[in-house]
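F.,

This is the one I mentioned.
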């Protein structure tokens, strides 16, 4: 099993190096014959290296790098870099969701979607545009962070109320009843981020 893993890694490295050399050569507008001549290898050998058909020695790699004006260390800098799995949500493209008490003038746009039964974080862009609407209080697990972007609101948490204006923030235990008490100046726009503790 370990031998197969080593072989797979070697193939992956050959493919990476071949693609990196070809990419650098093409970006400089150089022909295979030009680079091969400077590196002291045949055109066929360079072609096979670029297509991952052969493995090459460090000495040959060094000569190829010299011919391309590239440091050998730079050739390996992106090898085995983690792929990453960031979620990019464009402006206005968050998933609109319905929450209790949000039938009129109160919109939630979910800005990150986590799959599976457990959530670590839940960020919402919340907009409110109806000053006469009466809101129920909310209560749910986690710690909630609110950052005001636009408008003014009296926000209740437990027995206390807070006047939130643009640039203000509020962090609280979301298990205690909380929610808008009064919409002082509409339209209101705020960022609400809830983090959840590991249930274990």
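My design for it:
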């Amino acid at each position: 099993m370990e031998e197969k893993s080593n072989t797979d890694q070697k193939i992956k490295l050959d493919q990476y190096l071949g693609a990196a050399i070809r990419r650098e050569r093409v970006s400089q507008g150089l022909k295979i014959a030009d680079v091969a001549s400077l590196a002291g290898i045949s055109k066929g050998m360079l072609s096979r290296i670029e297509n991952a058909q052969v493995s090459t020695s460090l000495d040959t790699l060094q000569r190829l790098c010299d011919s391309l004006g590239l440091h050998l260390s730079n050739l390996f800098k992106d090898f085995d870099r983690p792929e990453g799995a960031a979620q990019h949500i464009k402006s206005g493209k968050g998933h609109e969701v319905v929450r209790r008490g949000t039938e009129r003038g109160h919109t939630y746009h979910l800005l990150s979607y986590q799959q599976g039964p457990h959530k670590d974080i839940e960020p919402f862009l919340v907009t409110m545009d109806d000053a006469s609407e009466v809101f129920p209080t909310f209560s749910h697990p986690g710690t909630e962070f609110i950052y005001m972007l636009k408008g003014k609101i009296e926000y209740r948490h437990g027995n206390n109320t807070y006047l939130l204006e643009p640039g203000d923030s509020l962090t609280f235990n979301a298990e205690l009843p909380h929610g808008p008490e009064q919409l002082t100046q509409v339209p209101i726009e705020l960022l609400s981020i809830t983090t959840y503790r590991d249930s274990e």
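The helical segments are 2-27, 32-39, 43-50, 58-68, 72-75.

Talk soon.
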